[in-house]
Amino acid sequence: MTANMMTALEKSKPAEGLWMVDAPVPEIGPDDVLIRINKTGICGTDIHIWNWDEWAAETVPVPMITGHEFAGEIVELGRNVTGLTLGQRCSGEGHLIGTESRQSRAGKFHLDPGTRGIGVNEQGAFAQYLRLPAFNVVPLPDDIPDEIGAILDPLGNAVHTALSFALLGEDVLITGAGPIGIMAAAVARHAGARNVVITDINADRLALAEHVVPSVRTVNVVKEDLNDVAHALGLREGFDVGLEMSGSQAALDQMVEALVMGGKIALLGIPPGTSPVNWGRIVFKAITIKGVYGREMFETWYKMIAMLQNGLNVSRVITHRFPVQEFAQGFAAMKSGQSGKVVLDWTL
Ligand SMILES: NC(=O)c1ccc[n+]([C@@H]2O[C@H](COP(=O)([O-])OP(=O)(O)OC[C@H]3O[C@@H](n4cnc5c(N)ncnc54)[C@H](O)[C@@H]3O)[C@@H](O)[C@H]2O)c1
Ligand SMILES: [Zn+2]
Prior knowledge:
The protein is globular. The model has no long low-confidence stretch (mean pLDDT about 95). The chain has two domains: about 5-150 and about 315-345, Quinone Oxidoreductase, Chain A, domain 1 (Alpha-Beta Complex); about 160-290, 3-Layer(aba) Sandwich (Rossmann fold). The protein has twelve helices and 18 strands. The two termini are about 15 Å apart. The protein has helices at about 45-50, 55-60, 100-105, 145-150, 150-160, 180-190, 205-210, 225-230, 250-260, 280-285, 300-310, 325-335, and strands at about 5-10, 20-25, 30-40, 65, 70-75, 90, 95, 115, 130-135, 135-140, 170-175, 195-200, 215-220, 240-245, 260-265, 290, 320-325, 340-345. The protein is an alpha/beta fold. The structure holds nicotinamide-adenine-dinucleotide (NAD) and zinc ion. Zinc ion (ZN) binds near residues 43, 45 and 154.
């Protein structure tokens, strides 16, 4: 490999798979930093890109270096960059935003309609080096290891969703025990919920949820009646807050039924295409629904780091670790539906 080349995982052609390639090290602009990547997490989005499904084919130009969940170290600073130093360990927000929109100018950066994603619309983090605007950098404190830094993006989805509504003393229902649902259960516990119940249709995922958050009540909705569980826990009128993290229509329907009158739902899961909703039921139950996209910049990052430093522990959600040369095994583990988070090590 020559001096200005690096190893990267690239979608090189419109077909299934990713390819390990030599790519040029990105050149940074005056407001950017160059980050040497140490660890990356594989996301469901990366699986869509690997599979080259309809969404990926419509969204992702090729060639594209994929990946957006990362931790690394700053190795170069653009000339305008202040407040960051060479050698600084960091993660970062993978949503790149503009500053012209109404919401950006109101300081609500996560609501910028022109958001572009690294690893989706812009060259990503599955590489030895990543160019990132300094604005997007989130420094990592010494007590947060790189592998946790590499899953802050999905933990941030969980935190953003879970903190959408007050949870102290509330009974919380989470549908979908994927990595994000499981981390949301840990956050709900940390935030003082009374009962945290998490549902899935996959027994392996529910076993992982119990392993990560032993105090959570898991429910396999194929085998168990959610209402029976709610009654057994002493809930008289239903759950107060629902966090939808499966993208399943059936799960959302079940959540609406299981909520108290005036309950609240934060929706993170993305249902495929359009799906029918019983709006009358939602109106008559006076339910509040909030859609959640990404992470708040940068309040979610601030809160999650603070919680990690104050007892929130999600490390057991990482079930597989591979050197990047074995990336195909990492993707196979993710695709099996039995893994939690899969982390790749780039310190070649
Ligand atoms: N809005 C955003 O910004 C954003 C960001 C990241 C992920 N997401 C979405 O959030 C969701 C969670 O992400 P993830 O990576 O944990 O996904 P995942 O696919 O790993 O987990 C989803 C889980 O839901 C379970 N499930 C399926 N049907 C169910 C049902 N009827 N009841 C209960 N559980 C059921 C699946 O078995 C699976 O374990 C996905 O839909 C993902 O697309 C949204
Ligand atoms: Zn992700």
